[in-house]
Amino acid sequence: xxxxxxxxxxxxxxxxxxxxxxxxxxxxxxxxxxxxxxxxxxxxxxxxxxxxxxxxxxxxxxxxxxxxxx
Length: 70
Fold this sequence. Notes:
Distance between the termini: 25 Å
Strand content: 35-45%
Helix content: 10-25%
């Protein structure tokens, strides 16, 4: 997984009742865009360091805008 600051981290639930979350990647701490990422979560405004796992993917800012317009 590779990202740059300004991309969005999308977390899809792996269980039926899991909620989807998305957050703005504020900082990339790994070499060449790899995790961990400092993410500001859209639902809470909290910032946490994340190492994404199953159910996670990256969207660019343009992809996020397109997804929100649908």
